[in-house]
């Protein structure tokens, strides 16, 4: 069994102001995505300026934060937030939903694409390879907060988390998700998107890969105590939300390549 590294969730205290590692991870995700987007900007659209990219990053970041928080409230713990609405603002304590954040990003991109006369899926294909940076950083934030730990296990790398009332050795599922949703997903999408692909294909691959990775890790991640298993005695909320995502991703890739094949047949 490995010893959980005791890391203070507060990275820096300046009088009454406390800067949490969880919040800093969002800055890492946004900053990293911004930097890599700037490297690909001219290939995406030679007419776009750095200001246009900054505008896009701002609205996408707003969609991530607002959608992620509201998604968590609606999908995972609505009763607690209705009882104390001030909890909605306490994002440094965690409580963000990826699927809610995804909805927020989709709405932000939909508005931005209309404003800048750009195809919605062209923009999503541009953004998708950048998302794993934030996902990976967020999982490190979960690990530092000692939250969203895995199920009890006897594997050699199990850890006892200080926030676990039962003090059981558990899977460090946050690190599994960092490796899959962060490192692996970024590598797959970045390599795949380096060559021209049919519009919607990169977005579709993101949906498939994230959905599968999250679905698999949920088997060793402790379900939310107030939700438990929601179907068949083993399906969690995270898995249920991933099923339509995988199906939608597969449909997008199928449609993208079908349109590409039809275009080639027309040209030939």
UniProtKB/TrEMBL annotation:
<dbReference type="GO" id="GO:0005886">
    <property type="term" value="C:plasma membrane"/>
</dbReference>
<feature type="transmembrane region" description="Helical">
    <location>
        <begin position="19"/>
        <end position="36"/>
    </location>
</feature>
<keyword id="KW-1003">Cell membrane</keyword>
<keyword id="KW-0808">Transferase</keyword>
<keyword id="KW-1133">Transmembrane helix</keyword>
<feature type="transmembrane region" description="Helical">
    <location>
        <begin position="175"/>
        <end position="192"/>
    </location>
</feature>
<keyword id="KW-0812">Transmembrane</keyword>
<feature type="transmembrane region" description="Helical">
    <location>
        <begin position="56"/>
        <end position="76"/>
    </location>
</feature>
<keyword id="KW-0472">Membrane</keyword>
<comment type="pathway">
    <text>Protein modification; lipoprotein biosynthesis (diacylglyceryl transfer).</text>
</comment>
<dbReference type="GO" id="GO:0008961">
    <property type="term" value="F:phosphatidylglycerol-prolipoprotein diacylglyceryl transferase activity"/>
</dbReference>
<dbReference type="Pfam" id="PF01790">
    <property type="entry name" value="LGT"/>
</dbReference>
<comment type="similarity">
    <text>Belongs to the Lgt family.</text>
</comment>
<feature type="binding site">
    <location>
        <position position="139"/>
    </location>
    <ligand>
        <name>a 1,2-diacyl-sn-glycero-3-phospho-(1'-sn-glycerol)</name>
    </ligand>
</feature>
<dbReference type="GO" id="GO:0042158">
    <property type="term" value="P:lipoprotein biosynthetic process"/>
</dbReference>
<feature type="transmembrane region" description="Helical">
    <location>
        <begin position="199"/>
        <end position="217"/>
    </location>
</feature>
<keyword id="KW-0449">Lipoprotein</keyword>
<protein>
    <recommendedName>
        <fullName>Phosphatidylglycerol--prolipoprotein diacylglyceryl transferase</fullName>
        <ecNumber>2.5.1.145</ecNumber>
    </recommendedName>
</protein>
<feature type="transmembrane region" description="Helical">
    <location>
        <begin position="96"/>
        <end position="114"/>
    </location>
</feature>
<dbReference type="InterPro" id="IPR001640">
    <property type="entry name" value="Lgt"/>
</dbReference>
<feature type="transmembrane region" description="Helical">
    <location>
        <begin position="126"/>
        <end position="144"/>
    </location>
</feature>
<comment type="function">
    <text>Catalyzes the transfer of the diacylglyceryl group from phosphatidylglycerol to the sulfhydryl group of the N-terminal cysteine of a prolipoprotein, the first step in the formation of mature lipoproteins.</text>
</comment>
<feature type="transmembrane region" description="Helical">
    <location>
        <begin position="229"/>
        <end position="255"/>
    </location>
</feature>
């Amino acid at each position: 069994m490995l010893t959980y590294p005791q890391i203070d969730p507060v990275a820096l205290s300046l009088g009454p102001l406390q800067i949490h590692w969880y919040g800093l991870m969002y800055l890492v995700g946004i900053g990293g995505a911004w930097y890599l987007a700037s490297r690909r900007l001219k290939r995406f659209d030679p007419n776009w300026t750095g200001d246009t990219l900054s505008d896009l990053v701002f609205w996408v970041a707003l969609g991530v934060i607002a959608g992620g928080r509201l998604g968590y409230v609606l999908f995972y713990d609505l009763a607690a937030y209705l009882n104390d609405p001030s909890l909605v603002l306490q994002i440094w304590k965690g409580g963000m939903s990826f699927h809610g954040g995804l909805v927020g990003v989709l709405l932000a991109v939909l508005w931005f694409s209309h404003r800048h006369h750009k195809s919605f899926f062209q923009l999503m294909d541009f953004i998708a390879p950048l998302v794993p940076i934030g996902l990976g950083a967020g999982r490190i934030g979960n690990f530092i907060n000692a939250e969203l730990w895995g199920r009890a296990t006897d594997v050699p790398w199990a850890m006892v988390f200080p926030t676990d009332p039962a003090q059981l050795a558990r899977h460090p599922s946050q690190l599994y998700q960092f490796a899959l949703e962060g490192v692996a997903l970024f590598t797959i999408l970045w390599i795949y998107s380096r060559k021209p692909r049919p519009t919607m294909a990169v977005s579709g691959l993101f949906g498939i890969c994230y959905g599968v990775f999250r679905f698999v890790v949920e088997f060793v991640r402790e379900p939310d105590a107030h939700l438990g298993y929601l179907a068949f005695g083993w399906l969690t909320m995270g898995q249920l939300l991933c099923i339509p995502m995988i199906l939608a991703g597969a449909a997008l890739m199928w449609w993208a390549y079908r349109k590409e094949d039809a275009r080639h047949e027309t040209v030939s």
